[in-house]
């Protein structure tokens, strides 16, 4: 990865962590917050994959914290539906079912098409340029063969587009849906290709600049339909991940 893409990746990690806090209290930089951010980012970036087991003892050893801290973090992630905790089986990264995947995209269609009039009304030149820069960064990531970063930038594009509407409740809900979408693509879209999605983002921005609400709604709906249709709906099994390799056993 070149230096500009490395910088973009680091910036995106910050954005992802910021987005995750919208539905939680500001908890400072405590150990449990640091562990939460590391695991959250690993899930969203697909370093931890759906179905990966998350044993408390192994994570506690990796992060050099107590199992109580790990338990608190896992419960928080479970509340956000990124982790599933089962009696006697422990915690694992959530693996959305086909029905859950369909429901997530149905919810996204309702939200992301429904607020286009508010987005048009509140759009500023600075917001439009930020969205165009996200699309350019996504295109650069694709050219560099970095599908993971392109997928993350794609999700950030959708989040920032909705943020323009100024509806904090819908922005928070979409952040949760985007996190779920990342898991869904990890399970059902291992061959995800972002080129056509990046092109759709450019079309959306051109329609946004023109103020064409009806066209925006139609293009957004078709864009989400295309993304859902690309999923193969076949789950994969996963072994216990190598936590020390993923997290390097270090907390800041």
TrEMBL record:
<dbReference type="InterPro" id="IPR036388">
    <property type="entry name" value="WH-like_DNA-bd_sf"/>
</dbReference>
<keyword id="KW-0804">Transcription</keyword>
<feature type="domain" description="HTH gntR-type">
    <location>
        <begin position="29"/>
        <end position="96"/>
    </location>
</feature>
<dbReference type="InterPro" id="IPR036390">
    <property type="entry name" value="WH_DNA-bd_sf"/>
</dbReference>
<protein>
    <submittedName>
        <fullName>GntR family transcriptional regulator</fullName>
    </submittedName>
</protein>
<dbReference type="Pfam" id="PF07729">
    <property type="entry name" value="FCD"/>
</dbReference>
<keyword id="KW-0238">DNA-binding</keyword>
<dbReference type="InterPro" id="IPR011711">
    <property type="entry name" value="GntR_C"/>
</dbReference>
<keyword id="KW-0805">Transcription regulation</keyword>
<dbReference type="InterPro" id="IPR000524">
    <property type="entry name" value="Tscrpt_reg_HTH_GntR"/>
</dbReference>
<dbReference type="InterPro" id="IPR008920">
    <property type="entry name" value="TF_FadR/GntR_C"/>
</dbReference>
<dbReference type="Pfam" id="PF00392">
    <property type="entry name" value="GntR"/>
</dbReference>
